[in-house]
């Protein structure tokens, strides 16, 4: 169980190991329950609409990642779940989320990176 605000991250918090373990365990639970597909913004631009639809059809959740300076933007292209924004942040960062993140609206999540 996660008993802290994942949006704030846990790096340099004094109990990083416990928080990291909790986030990784939650990610493991989510990946067992849902099929998750990911791509990056560069590959996404090369896909035809038909290819993208065929790829997304395979998954419950499908996310595209675009790298930025000290963060990345994850756009959720498909989400057949009722997961919270916190769970979606964990999925977007593949169970890491040590620097936190936020929901930006319009199915976009910002993940802080070093």
Describe the model:
With 114 residues, the protein is of the alpha+beta class. The chain has one domain. The chain has helices at 16-33, 41-46, 49-56, 85-92, and strands at 36-40, 61-67, 71-79, 101-105, 108-112. It has a 5-stranded mixed β-sheet with strand order 1-2-3-5-4. A hairpin with a 2-residue loop joins strand 4 (101-105) and strand 5 (108-112). The longest helix has 18 residues, at 16-33. It starts with 15 loop residues before the first helix and ends with a strand.
Task: Name some characteristics of this structure.
globular, single chain, 5 strands
- Unreliable segments of 5+ consecutive residues: none
Largest sheet: 5 strands, mixed
The number of helical runs is 4
Q: Which percent bin holds the helix content? A: 25-40%
Radius of gyration: 14 Å
The order of strands across the largest sheet is 1-2-3-5-4
Overall pLDDT confidence:
92
* Tally of DSSP β-strands: 5
Topology, pairings included?
Elements: H1 16-33, E1 36-40, H2 41-46, H3 49-56, E2 61-67, E3 71-79, H4 85-92, E4 101-105, E5 108-112
Parallel strand pairs: 1-2
Antiparallel strand pairs: 2-3, 3-5, 4-5
In short:
The chain is an alpha+beta fold. The protein contains 4 helices and 5 strands, in the order αβααββαββ.
